[in-house]
Input
Amino acid sequence: MASEGQAVEQLRDYLRTLKPEARAMLIVELERDLLRGEDVAGSELILQELRRTIRASGQKVPRIGDAVRLFFAPLEPFLINDAADHKRIGRIARATLAPIWEWIGRDLIPAETKALVSDVNRALFEDDRLKAEQLIRALYDRVILRITEVVAGVQNDESKRRRLAAQIGSPRAVETITTLAKVLACRDVLPTVAQRLPAIMPAFEREQVDLVKALLTGATVQKAAVGPTANKDDIFLYGLILVTGRLTEPWQLIRIATRAAASSDEIRVAQTPFAVAVNIVLGDLECMVGDLETGLKVRRQVAPLVRAICTAVHGVGTELSFSADSDWGRRFAAIRGELANVLKPGIDSAPARVRRILRPRAAKDIAPGSVLEANEVSDAEMQLDLVTACREYANELGIGDVSMRAYSELQHYLEAGAKILLDSLRHANDADRAFRQSQMQAAIRFCRLIFGADFAGLLAKAAEMATQKLSEAERARAY
Output
């Protein structure tokens, strides 16, 4: 097997054999993939070697991807992999970056973009990073100015808003380009905040909260240095989103608002500059519930997301006192109501699904050598995991009755059903043995979720002994 060094050398040899046009095409396509977030394994190494080969040959290739990535670099902490129509405040869908760049170069400032990008590419080719960044900053200023004009021009014109949405590829085009302009306007302040934040905050307690408060309050005095388009509210918003990315439990961001107000009362919290933290948390919760609904529809593993949502809902309800008739109160109640509606069907149908899989069958009803469908068992297992994930906060979410009933039915059925399955396994014959073993394995997996690993281990041992006794009986009959 070739060593890593030999593999790199073989790659270099291959790239040297490519025609200049092929190298140019390859580097542009790889950089576009990286821009779209499609980081193919080995692409960075290939790009590195391509650039080395290109420099050695004196070939000049437009480094489109590098220029674009340099332009969008300040946005990185605010990019998400959600759909373009997401509703997360202060975030931009990564999928919209390519359409935004095309719009800037085609419709917003085509002449300036073409000239500046050409200069940026030249500077990057010459490894003059400082010059490239200076040129990009000039482009930022033009983009911010023009976006401000565009947004003002479409506010009261629905046809222009629709056209802009088509150009950007998002129904939230106005919000998206507004976020772009505001982040770029804060580009000198936010990196300073990011550098001073802890890399990870497992718990957002008093010490960390006070640190963040001081950082953001201090950062607002720098706004004059970043131009008139940056303002205090934007610095607080995007600074808090930076903090959210460092929190193990993002919902805890709400603590900075209650700490600033020295109260859990929403009226007092709303009067502080950190009130936007509540909007960030509630917006993220709304999107998480949407992700949960989608995950359930496509039968994806959602138990970790359920636990995260339930923990967040419980935490937010504990930290902040909502009024039933306030905007925040109505949003929070709607989140809880939607969550309950999304979870109830899956919880309520879990016992019937388990019974369908594990129900005893007569030997004549089992096709020789058949087994349970693996996907059906996996789906049921995920559904049981959902039931257990909801138990702790079931009453708080308004699904206590459904959750307790489903869990109790599962306990009783699995406990009794396991004994019946063991007895069926002991008396299985060649034709139905595989099916009964697959039922037993499914029961063990289900019991692990409902009763725990110890019970499942004992059941697995009993199944093993039953299989051994069956084999011994068959050998005895053979003699």
Observations:
- The beta strands are 79-80, 92-93.
- Residues 448 and 456 are 5 Å apart (CA to CA).
- The chain has a mean pLDDT of 86.
- The longest helix spans residues 327-358.
